[in-house]
User: Fold these one by one.
Assistant:
Number 1:
Amino acid sequence: MKKVTTGRYSRFFIYLVVVALLNLAGITLFFRADLTSNKVYSLSDASRKAVLTLSDPLTVKVFFNGNLPAPYNNIERYLHDLLEEYAVAGNRFFNYRFYNVSGEENEEPGGNRELAESYGIQPVQIQNIEQDEVKFRKAYMGMALIHGDIIETMPTITSTDGLEYRITSAIRKMNDKISALLNLKENVSVKLILSSSLAVVGPYMNITGLLELPSEIEGIVNKLNAKNYGKLSFSNLDPSAGNRDEQDAQRYNVLRLNWDEFTDRRGNTIPAGRGYAGIVIEYGDRSETVDLIEVISLPIFGTQYRLTDPGELEKAIDKTIENVININEEIGYLADHGALPIEGMSPVSGYLQQDESLSNFNRLLSEEYSIRRVNLKNGDIPEGLSTLIIAGAKENFTDYELYRIDRFLMKGKNLAIFMDSFNEVRPQSRSGMMGGSQRPLWMPLNTGLEKLLDHYGLSVGKSIILDENSFKQRMPQQFGGGERSIYFAPVIMNEMINKDAAYLKNIKGLVM
């Protein structure tokens, strides 16, 4: 009986020792296992590599309202798990913190709401269903990544789709930007090109505040200078004051506005003239232009003008700085043969008209790539480019130019052609500055690219496709409101999208 009791105590003591050793090992040794089928909570190799390159601390500040309704409550939970994975991979250089933002107007100054808005994170309106009643509330759902003096903000996070990709892209870009800025041999030049003559016609274009614009732009540049290690220099050029400044405006392809002589309602005569408005960011032999004035041509209502929002302008300047110092992979864009300008500006009726679609394309493309303009008439396609985009070319390509494009393809490179079968020709306007509303003419277009595509078994028909299931354009209230169907812009619904393609997996709909 005594031996049995002793044996029980011995086994109990052994179990106790084993448990104590396991707990001791657990203090210093641990592992994480992702048991989901598609490894939702595991970092990709690219993300691990990006976070391992950190040599200085990177802090992530996440701002979310508490008690969010589904499905938004799952986003914060997913972010907790995802950022913990980054922290494990990044060791001591990756830190994160969550801030519960009440979003109440009576919150004390210096609270989390004020901190969120200091990073450009504003509340968004979300829908909440309570007791069969639909309610709307404002909620903060964003994050800011801080690495040295560089800040990247994701002001709105409403889905977990592609979130790891966005975070990893931001980390890589911040790392590359810091390295590029510290290695600059000279400052990045930021030139404001603004004609003083525009201040006279500005009020007639519904544009006010042009006289105060230079000081506002200088303030934006000074703010960005603090975030870019003091590597920016600002200057102000007035093409109305000298021929040299006007030559610079023309060389940089800055937006030009022409107007004929006209008489206002008070009987004052405004003489004919022209003016330039834009911001040029230049470093070395690379330069890009940021638009100050948005020119929008609306059918029936004519041409409308408006100043670019200061907040959007600051973001655009910052993005353009990244392009000219070349922190991203380069992608080629054809700049001659009448191709659409990547900046979204095209000549119409004596002035440059803005294409919003191209401006958006340029903005999205610039987030991941540095755009390099290719002039095929003056030389070959530069080495080092893996992709060339030809968008809306309208002039003929010679056989030798087609041969160079074909040789580019034969090297295993990528070619993206956005091709029109017809050329839209707008009749010359008689109303000068405000443009006209005449219907365009559609002329058949042949550039020679048809021969190149035919060689690869592709052809483009001479036709225009219209679809009743098309995009609905919301008209502004000042133009009567309502919706207008754009029949040549068909809407592709979710069920008609091939989800087998990885790049279309998270796409819920397309407007062609």
Number 2:
Amino acid sequence: MELSTYLRILHRNWILIVALTILGGAGAYGYSLLQTPTYEANTQLYVSVRSDTSGVSELAQGTNFARQAVVSFVDVVDSAVVLDRVINDLNLDTTAQQLAKSVEASSPTNSVIISINVSNTNAETAAAIANSVGTNFADVVVNGLEKPVGDAASLVRIETIEPALVPTAPSSPHTTVNILLGIVLGLGLGVAFAVLRSILDTRIHSLHDIEAATEAPVLGGIALDPDARKRPLIVHADPRNPRAESFRSLRTNLQFIDVDGSSRSFVVTSAGPGEGKSTTTSNLAIALAETGARVALVDGDLRLPRIAEYMGLEGGVGLTDVLIGRAELVDVLQQWGTGKLFVLTSGRTPPNPSELLGSQAMQRTLDALAEAFDYVLIDSPPLLLVTDAAVVSRFTSGVLIVAASGSTKKPALAAAVEKLEAIGSRLFGVIVTMLPAKGPDSYSYGAYSYAAPTDEVSREEKPREGRSRRRSQRQQDDT
């Protein structure tokens, strides 16, 4: 994946990442609060060798001896012989084995200094144990382990050079460090989860996902409208709404598609249900009619028709009646709005939709509409559910596929495109619906526009409008 893809993933999941980061820091802080504070006290001892002479050679030998002895003395510090004395001196309720876990002795290389570090949950106790360990260790070594036979004094001397002081602050837990580690861990988990989630999520979220899933061009994007069910015809209900502008941008792109022939007829379908194809088809038809073009909107979804309901028209008689010869096309076309848009509803639901839609009667009907209108839009069922859209596409200029952001899956869209390619139908592009209004996947209605001014489009359409008027006049004369 490219860097821009990762940035979109992070932007798309920023709430999750921030939440896990905060949770990591808060968890580390809570963990630190639950830990019992531990205090550390330290004392340092100096080991030397007595010498009756002041010669340099004798002093050097004594120092070397002390350095070698210190290595062994370090292991004596936390031995039972020392710690038992400490327990007795301080009346501690513990054993030498348990106490040894909190006592640590060390000495730098080639040094005669022994450092004793003691940890305890009580600051004063830690200091007392450290000093007692130092005192008893010195006594065990000088008057025990290194004491010569007889009354002679020991050659080893151990002196305290820095007694243990009562610590003023606990050494653990390291709250600040823990919080920083928790934040880093939470951030890492958030980013990893976001990337994994994006990899496993096969749904389409943006125009970029369309380009990645298929080679078909993106004709436009339509923003999500929570009130779409209440006012599906946004181009008519609220012409200045940004979503209405999205349909006008789609109209502009559609007008500049290079289509063979003088007519432009399109099957509008989707990979699956609930992706907004009927709403998109209706609004696109209204937007095209706004330019002065004559538009025929056909409800070719004979299984679950929606156009009559959206357009507020009578749907009892329509396409099925024309196909079975029960009605004439001119009698069932219903004028809508300013007179540039005519709607052919589905009519009654037949038992054999695919057969009717693939019949010669359907081809003659679409040919007649293409002759009389500048644009013919056929709302068809989803491609992957039934064959209706694929069958009808053979009688039209091509297909427009509607894909819903957050709903349509990339494999499903790819399968729909392959299905069209298999039957030789032409796919003009994909329309992405339900795009979020904000965020990394949001859509600006001008993003994929061909930037053709509206007045220029109107001038482009005037010749076709004239032809449409002549066709309309001929149609009226025939009737």
